């Protein structure tokens, strides 16, 4: 599986972006060390790992500690070594994807909006990991479930909200 791993760290001078190479990482602790090394003094550091235009994993460190993880689909852990490395020990999210893709029917005469996509994904981890940065759990799960959005598109949307889109886009070039 091919992948793209972009780390962004927010310190006193703003966001810094760096591409990480995870091929030699033996465990999640080594990945966390690489993320921490992007800016050891960062208030928050995020790692976006996109794999084969199918899967997205997001890792978050606050103050270099307290790892939180989200994965767009549990299958990523089954299909790839990097997916297993990042998501192997992660549990299901508190919010189910069905709650986002099949919202309750509207009240009154309004028709319920059509679902963004069928719940063909099984997200895992903490969908609230970006909530304090402006991306709610519902938004994150909706992006991951939206038919036609690639992991790169989801990363771009999130980074746009966070204010670090230019740095991540430069890494892609």
From TrEMBL:
<feature type="region of interest" description="Disordered">
    <location>
        <begin position="101"/>
        <end position="128"/>
    </location>
</feature>
<feature type="compositionally biased region" description="Low complexity">
    <location>
        <begin position="118"/>
        <end position="128"/>
    </location>
</feature>
<dbReference type="InterPro" id="IPR023869">
    <property type="entry name" value="tRNA_Adeno_NH3ase_assoc_put"/>
</dbReference>
<protein>
    <recommendedName>
        <fullName>tRNA adenosine deaminase</fullName>
    </recommendedName>
</protein>
């Amino acid at each position: 599986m091919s992948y793209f791993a972009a780390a962004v760290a927010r310190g006193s001078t703003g966001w810094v972006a760096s591409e990480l190479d995870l091929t030699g990482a033996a465990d999640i602790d080594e990945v966390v060390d690489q993320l921490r090394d992007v800016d050891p003094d960062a208030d928050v550091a995020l790692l976006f790992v996109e794999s084969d235009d199918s899967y997205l994993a997001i890792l978050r460190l606050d103050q270099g500690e307290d790892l939180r993880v989200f994965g767009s689909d549990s299958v990523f852990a089954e299909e790839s070594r990097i997916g297993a490395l990042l998501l192997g020990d992660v549990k299901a999210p508190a919010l189910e994807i069905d709650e986002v893709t099949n919202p309750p029917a509207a009240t009154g005469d309004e028709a319920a909006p059509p679902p963004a996509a069928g719940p063909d994904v099984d997200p895992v981890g903490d969908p609230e990991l970006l909530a304090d940065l402006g991306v709610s759990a519902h938004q994150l799960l909706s992006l991951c479930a939206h038919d036609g959005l690639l992991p790169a598109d989801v990363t771009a949307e999130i980074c746009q909200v966070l204010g670090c889109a230019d740095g991540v886009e430069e890494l892609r070039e």
